[in-house]
Amino acid sequence: MTRPAFHLAFPVDDLAAARRFYGDLLGCREGRSSEEWIDFDFHGHQIVAHLAPESAGDKAVNHVDGHGVPVPHFGLVLAMEEWEALAARLRAAGTQFVIEPTVRFRDRPGEQATMFLRDPAGNALEFKAFADEGQLFAT
User: Fold this and answer.
1) Which CATH number fits domain 60-135: 3.90.650.10, 3.10.180.10, 3.40.50.10860, 3.30.750.24?
2) Can you name the residues that pair with 129 across neighbouring β-strands?
3) Where does CATH 3.10.180.10 sit in the chain?
4) How many CB atoms lie within 10 A of CB 10?
């Protein structure tokens, strides 16, 4: 199934750090850029890091299945093999996780592998995967 691509613009306080994190660490291809913003290809979705130091890195949390989940956050639902490869790459790079790679809702509807981390500006990202992708919207 072909899905529409989403677009997300978010604040960062250092474009060079954003370029290293999204481009080098996460492997996002860079698109257009200026001295104030950078477009990245986030698995077929357009995300744009905008230089806005006064707005970067909210620190609120909500509790989900025993974890303090950062709000706001954004991320991707990956295939399990991609999620496992990304988790291994992030661990090898010494990434500090907000929530370590784990399985949430184990043996319940919506069981998912998940991990949370922050970019250099403090923006929270979640990467998740489902052994059964039909559980994405399970209730």
Assistant:
1) 3.10.180.10
2) 78, 113
3) 7-53, 60-135
4) 19
CATH code of 7-53, in short, is 3.10.180.10
Q: Is 128 in contact with 75 (CB distance < 8 Å)?
A: yes
The pTM of this model reads: 0.86
138: pLDDT strictly greater than 60? yes
> 138 or 51, which is more confident?
51
pLDDT in the model for residue 95: 97
Q: How far is it, in rounded angstroms, from Cα 109 to Cα 132? A: 10
Residue with tokens 């922050």: 118
Please determine, for residue 47, whether its predicted confidence score (pLDDT) is greater than 90: yes
